[in-house]
Amino acid sequence: MPSSSSSSSKLPLREIPGSYGSSFFGPIKDRYDYFYNQGKDEFFKTRIQKYNSTVFRTNMPPGPFISSDPRVVAVLDSKSFTILFDNSKVEKKDILDGTYMPSLSFFGGYRTCAFLDTEEPDHRALKSLFLSFLATSHKKFIPYLRTGLSELYDNLENEISDKKSADFNNNSDNMAFDFVFRLVTGVDPSETKIKSKGPGTVTTWLALQLAPLGTSGIKFIPNFIDDIIHTVRLPFFVIKSGYKKLYNAVYDSATTLLDEAEKSGIKRDEACHNLVFLAAFNAFGGMKVLFPSLIKWIGSGGESLHRRLAEEIRSVVKEEGDVTFSALEKMPLTKSAVYEALRIDPPVPFQYATAREDIIVESHDAAFQIKKGETIFGYQPFATKDPKVFQNPEEFVADRFVGDGEKLLKYVYWSNARETESPSADNKQCPAKDLVVLCCRLMLVELFLRYDTFTAKTGQVALGASVTITSFTKAA
Ligand code: HEM
Questions:
Q1: Is the CB of 96 under 6 A from ligand 1?
Q2: Domain span at 339
Q3: What CATH number is attached to the domain comprising 423?
Q4: Atom 3, ligand 1: residue with shortest CA distance
Q5: CA 438 → CA 145, 169, 322, 414, distances in Å?
Q6: What confidence score (pLDDT) does residue 401 get?
Q7: Which pTM does this prediction carry?
């Protein structure tokens, strides 16, 4: 008997619609539709309409010649998507990037924590180490972040007075890297051999691994040339020396954490490659996408939203006397606005898993049987913008999660689980879930303690939004 993803009422069992086409041309056709002919959102939207189903079969990029099997069952609504979080029914081995695995040379020859399944003993050991490291670093979060954010806004202001506008992404990347490096190692990157090269090195390292999942974004390059990045893996040696510098800097300074790792039975070099991955991929990679997206959406709310946020933030900080964990809890609009940004634009939009057994998955309208070994794929923006759960799902509603709206938090999935759940050594939820939310809240608190309002121009870059700040109006 296959097990069910939900115990709710019996829905009609339906064969999963969709087809993969021929094993060579099918994936290439889907890849062209996905990247060039339709684009991501249209690709999924047209198939949902065609099959009249939010669960269907399709190929996902890259396909030939990088992934040996690009076939997936897509789950694109709020309900079926949650099968990806059920670690008793799905396996998460080597599936972080989808249907292909980058070369292990990028990670010192190790499969780092994010590539490990919950049933692998190393996952438990590493995740426990990270969770306890985050718990013991708790007191550093607010002071480190406030220092970083105050520098960030100073730099943006200086850039505006020099050049009339400021590149938010670039400045935010620098802040994110310094914060994460300092948190993990206890020292400033400028005190190590990395100096100010960290964000550049890590961005190249990320781009080389993730290239098969995107496009160059350069309009005058013909599609068939651009498509080459989906057919061959980009080599590690391009960034080998930069990676080594980063590794050595972490190895030399994160001694306390590495000692802890050794005590719990993890080899020192394996732990260190894991720390580099955690700092560079998980943390810096996530922040690189999330912070510009947050500012983009808050910017889109305009002066009236800014006034409401500034009023809330300033009055709570005045009452509490400082920016503290408890002060941040007393800001319902600020909290909601952050969750809304995470809902409308989940920073890690793709999740994959493999069925451990035959499973029944339910969408809102039907039940489907997924066979053991099949790959399940979720495009998260479709789950967190599901019109059956959220009203006006495409609209940024800053106070959506205020008051009674808090009930909707269980449908916010950015951390690879429901917002109402907690990361543990037995699941695959982001261990820094609370820290990430804290970073976003503090980014808004610092912003509206300093300024009444701001304006920004936004665009698109490979991994998300690009934001240029065009003005700040200082608080009177
Ligand atoms: C804006 C920042 C961040 C975002 C958006 C983010 C998001 C995520 C997501 C979606 C996953 C699940 C990936 C998957 O299996 O599909 C994840 C896993 C993970 N994240 Fe985060 N994360 C962020 C920051 C951080 C930070 C600051 C740390 C550590 C200090 C961290 C450490 C990890 C680790 C170790 C995993 C793997 C968990 C496991 O294998 O069980 N992340 N993160």
A1: yes
A2: 3-474
A3: 1.10.630.10
A4: 286
A5: 9, 19, 15, 14
A6: 98
A7: 0.97
